[in-house]
Write a structure and sequence with these properties.
By secondary structure, this protein is of the alpha/beta class. Helix content is about 65%, strand content about 10%.
């Protein structure tokens, strides 16, 4: 009750604090929003004033364009005048949108529009005045008069000649002709000159009068323009003053709101601190009890985690231990099937072989509890004949049925040549679970397996299988519970037949994952009918192969192989030796990883079959040491688990392949066939002679360098310097027992050694680098250092002789 009251107090105080925070937050948010909106509005430019100033600027450009036109007479300034006038008109129209409704700005903007239009009219009239003036100047009356005057002075008057006498033909041909020309008679034009002068005087007087009138009109228009411009500037100044006054008012309002927010924040902070202090007092009063509860929860969590880890270790151990005898049963029954000729014995062995095969699948899935719970089971898509599978289920249960004197009946309406495409192992698992339950809870009578099919759309069928027994039946109230996990129904019979309660739960999950249905009908004392419906696609009879195994011929090159079997289980070794002896493959045995490492130091093996879990030294450590010394050797890991993380871990160290226990003979056969490609592709082992051949190939190095002697000599000089430094560093680090110095020295020389194709020296340097980092014992390190020093000296001697 006391704890309940504390909870109520904390809840009420929390609600009060929440309400205060929400209320204050709302007020602060509202005030800040107003301030921010005001700042945003004031931060934006006053488009109204900007537009008015643009109009004023363009009006000035209008004046300039008209003045330039009057000075130059260039028509381009007329086009500019028109464009500017049009732009001013558009901006005057847009200016109305920026006026504040029901304010003096509307009248001011109207006045600006009126004055601007007046100014445009004024400058249009001035433009017209100058245009008329220019047009009159183009007529050039004085030039016309001047041309008349010049013509009168230069042009000769009409010349009159006397008519010549007629001359005869012979006189014209033979007589002397008169070539003299009579002079023209010039007429005086002084009266015309005086008349032209008089016209010139009149034209000058007329032009002077027109210029005087035009200047007077232009003066009046310019005076009007000045008055209009003054009025526009005055209105702009009034708008600027109004805007400045408005900004000052808004600033005062923002200052007031900021002060109000400050007061509210102070009040809110004080109230929040007070309420928080009260909550903290109540919290510390209840802290001791909460700590006790936390300690209890931590202990319970630790116990749960330990239990989960123990369960995981237990499942892994049981899985591994079960696979070992199952592997022996599966493999030996497969071998015996190939040797036995008696029909009855072969039939019994075939049942044992198929049962072991089915048990392998169950071990793979049912023991992996997390896979079942997360519904991560995979389903194959292979062709199978359902009639054979149904008959196999009946055959598998003949022995326990005869023991209870029960009759097993198969009623099959499915054609014998029907082929389905799906997962036969899962279907067999479902039917075996149902048959096992039927035999368990039936004391007399018979158990019937009824099978029929229903054609679906396309090439699909629905398989309908009924398992009917004459057993004790299931009460109606318990039918919904039988598919739950770890459920045992109450009653005397449940005490008689105990189990884990997982059988029907697994059946239900398998059916659901294949998009099927399972139904049950039962009467107490009469029996039970389980109906399973699973859809399958139609299989291809041409692809389907009968279960008969064809004996493949053993290649002759199998006899040239030399294998190493590394396993601590006698069952596994017996099976492997039996198969390899039949194929004529030579092999040797090792009981643990340490023996395997020692044997590979003295003998070459084409393939090592390495068990993962062994005493003394496990498969991972043994494979690591073997592959460090010889990365080209093929190691196949024999594993009883299918964890992806384990395979990834082993692949990183260079494991060639994996073989999951238990495995059929054909899997090992296919592995050896694949080994042929690896053997052909890897380098040939060195031949041991009385005098060891040098490991270094300077000719190959020169070939890689393109027979560039200068480059080769430069590489040699650099390597010699690096090698001498490495030897000095190794000696100094050995004296000081400095493992970090060893690692650093080996690391620095490893790359040059690799570039010089000193592969074995490179491998030893990397081994020293690795063992030094792993804190290896000093005797082992010193042995490795001596070997490296010897190889460096040999290589240096070879280089010196080559250069000489």
């Amino acid at each position: 009750m006391k704890f309940f009251k504390i909870e109520i107090q904390i809840t009420l105080l929390t609600l009060i604090i929440g309400a205060a925070v929400a209320g204050s937050g709302y007020l602060v948010y509202k005030s800040l929003s107003e301030i921010i909106d005001s700042i945003h509005r004031e931060a934006r430019p006053d488009y109204k004033l900007l537009l008015i100033k643009d109009i004023s600027s363009e009006l000035s450009e209008v004046e300039n364009s008209v003045r330039l036109f009057s000075f130059t007479g260039n028509e381009n300034y007329i086009y500019k005048f028109r464009n500017l006038s049009k732009s001013v008109q558009e901006k005057l129209t847009n200016l109305e949108d920026y006026a504040i409704p029901e304010s003096n700005e509307i009248q001011q903007i109207d006045s600006i529009q009126l004055l601007s239009n007046q100014k445009l009219v004024i400058w249009a009239e001035i433009r017209n005045l100058h245009k008329q003036k220019i047009e009159k100047q183009t007529e050039k009356p004085l030039a016309k008069l001047a041309s008349k005057l010049d013509t009168a002075i230069i042009q000769p008057d009409t010349i009159k000649f006397e008519k010549p006498e007629k001359v005869g033909f012979f006189k014209r041909v033979f007589g002397k002709q008169d070539t003299t020309t009579k002079a023209p008679i010039i007429i005086d034009k002084s009266e015309e000159k005086e008349q032209l002068k008089q016209e010139i005087v009149e034209i000058e007087e007329q032009m002077s009068t027109e210029n005087t009138e035009q200047q007077a009109r232009e003066k009046k228009l310019l005076e009007r323009n000045i008055r209009v411009t003054d009025n526009i500037n005055r209105l702009i100044e009034q708008l600027e003053q109004a805007e400045q006054l408005r900004l000052e008012t808004k600033t005062q309002e923002a200052d007031f709101m900021a002060a109000q927010i400050y007061r509210r924040l102070v009040m809110f902070t004080g109230a929040s601190i007070l309420l928080l202090l009260i909550v903290l007092i109540l919290f510390y009063r209840n802290l001791k009890k909460n700590k006790d509860y936390q300690n209890i929860l931590k202990k319970a969590r630790a116990d749960a985690e330990n239990l989960a880890k123990a369960k995981e270790r237990f499942v892994a151990t049981v899985s591994h231990e079960m696979r070992t005898p199952v592997n022996a049963i599966y493999g030996l029954s497969e071998q015996m099937l190939q040797r036995v000729t008696d029909t009855d014995l072969k039939t019994d062995l075939n049942i044992v072989y198929k049962s072991a095969d089915h048990l392998i699948t169950l071990v793979n899935d049912t023991l992996d509890f997390s896979k079942i719970e997360s519904q991560k089971m995979t389903f194959e898509k292979i062709d199978f004949i359902p009639v054979e599978l149904l008959q196999e289920v009946i055959t598998l249960h003949q022995v326990p049925a005869r023991a209870k004197k029960l009759e097993l009946v198969l009623k099959n309406d499915i054609p014998e040549n029907r082929v389905y495409q799906g997962d036969p192992v899962r279907l067999k698992q479902i039917l075996i679970n149902l048959f096992t339950n039927a035999i368990k809870f039936t004391e007399k009578g018979k158990i019937t397996l009824e099978a029929t099919e229903e054609k679906l759309a396309g090439h699909h069928y629905k398989l309908i299988v009924d398992v009917v027994d004459s057993g004790i039946g299931i009460p109606q109230k318990n039918i919904d519970k039988i598919f739950e996990e770890f459920v045992q129904l109450d009653g005397d019979n449940s005490q008689k037949h105990r189990g884990a309660g997982l059988g029907l739960a697994i059946v239900k999950k398998l059916v659901d994952l294949q998009e099927g249905k399972i139904k049950v009908k039962s009467l107490v004392g009469k029996g039970t009918r389980f109906t399973v419906e699973i859809p399958y696609a139609e299989g291809d009879q041409r692809i389907y192969q009968p279960a008969e195994q064809k004996q493949q011929p053993i290649p002759d090159w199998f006899k040239n192989l030399n294998l190493l079997l590394v396993d601590d289980e006698a069952f596994n070794l017996y099976l492997l030796k039996n198969i390899l002896s039949k194929w004529g493959v030579a092999f040797k045995e090792a009981a643990n990883g340490l023996e395997a490492v020692e044997m590979t130091q003295n003998e070459h093996f084409d393939l090592i079959l390495m068990d993962m879990r062994m005493p003394v030294m496990d498969g991972f450590e043994a494979s690591t040491q073997i592959l460090t010394r010889d990365p080209n050797i093929a190691i196949t890991m024999l594993t009883a688990t299918n964890r992806a993380e384990d395979e990834e871990r082993y692949k990183k160290i260079g494991i060639w392949d994996f073989l999951q226990k238990p495995f059929p003979e054909r899997s090992l056969f296919e592995l050896l066939l694949k080994l042929k490609e690896k053997i052909d592709s890897r380098p040939k082992p060195e031949v041991t002679q009385e005098k060891a051949t040098p490991e270094f190939s300077l000719s190959e190095l020169k070939k890689i360098l393109g027979d560039d002697e200068s480059f080769f000599k430069e590489m040699v000089d650099l390597f010699v310097i690096s090698a001498q430094k490495c030897r000095e560093s190794l000696a100094k680090s050995t004296e000081l027992k400095d493992k970090e110095g060893l690692v650093d020295a080996a690391h620095k020389l490893a790359a040059p050694a690799k570039h010089m194709l000193a592969n074995k020296l490179y491998a030893k340097l990397k081994e020293l680098e690795k063992k030094g980092a792993e804190n290896e014992e000093w005797p082992e390190l010193e042995k490795l250092i001596r070997e490296i020093d010897l190889r460096i000296q040999e290589f240096l001697n070879l280089l010196n002789s080559e250069i000489s």
